[in-house]
Amino acid sequence: MTIEARIRELGNRHRNLDETIRREMTHPASDSLRVRELKQQKLRLKEQITSLEARTH
């Protein structure tokens, strides 16, 4: 897999997590621990994307 393809894959996962977080937060009984874990996953993905993008420049 090329770096660009990996960046796209991670970007898709990042967007999916963002949508999952939004849905979770709209529920009246949302689980704050789950939301925090999802946000941490999203941050790790963003860091991976940033690191890979730095390699391509």
How would you explain this protein's 3D organization?
This protein is mostly helical and 57 residues long. 86% of the residues lie in helices and 0% in strands. The radius of gyration is 13 Å and the shape is elongated.
Gist of the model:
With 57 residues, the protein is an all-alpha fold.
What's the N-to-C terminus distance? 18 Å
- The string of secondary-structure elements, in order, is HH
Hey, roughly how much beta strand do the residues contain? Answer: under 5%
Low-confidence runs (pLDDT<50, min 5 residues)? Answer: none
Radius of gyration: 13 Å
Count the domains: 1
Furnish the topology, listing elements before pairings.
Elements: H1 3-26, H2 32-56
Helix pairs in contact: 1-2
Keywords:
57 residues; mainly alpha; 0% strand; elongated
